[in-house]
TrEMBL record:
Pfam family, one: DUF3783
InterPro entries: UCP014543 (IPR016621)
Organism of derivation: Desulfatibacillum aliphaticivorans
Domain of life: Bacteria
Name of the protein this chain belongs to: DUF3783 domain-containing protein
Length: 145
């Protein structure tokens, strides 16, 4: 499923691919509120956030990023914590990731919407991200030996 097009994030003010939306998965209600508050302080521009639940697993990412801001807020579901970013700038991406680190939330998966991934289901993307994460951890362990 991978299109092998990972690139290093720069500092561009150009919006990345897709409509301006963040898809957030696997957060408790408290973590959702902390994330939204962090967005208000770090990323000053309005940024729609769609909270995803396990029931969204078979939905295409292109459909999820089109859903209304605040959808499923407060709903918790057993999913791996993940944020899929669409239409934000690279500068905003860095602000979000740095802001998230200051919240002290557990490790999570990060992705940016691409022309390829928007045709995937949420479940397929999360599986791919988990696979990539495990491969990176294995590579780091091998380098440490």
């Amino acid at each position: 499923m991978s299109d092998n097009t990972m690139t290093r994030v720069a500092d561009s003010d150009q919006p990345m691919y897709g409509p301006r939306t963040l898809l957030v998965c696997g957060y408790s209600a408290d973590a959702q509120n902390a994330f939204l508050n962090m967005l208000k302080t770090e990323v000053k521009a309005p940024t729609p956030v769609v909270f995803c639940t396990p029931e969204d697993g078979d939905t295409l990412l292109s459909e999820l990023v089109a859903l209304p801001d605040g959808r499923q807020k407060g709903q918790e579901g057993k999913m791996p914590p993940a944020v899929i970013m669409s239409g934000i700038t690279e500068k905003e991406l860095k602000l979000i990731m740095n802001g998230w680190k200051t919240l002290g939330l557990p490790r999570q998966l990060w992705a940016a919407l691409t022309p390829t991934s928007e045709t995937w289901t949420l479940r397929a993307l999360i599986r791919e991200l988990q696979s990539e994460h495990m491969a990176m951890l294995k590579q780091q362990q091998q380098q440490q030996q």
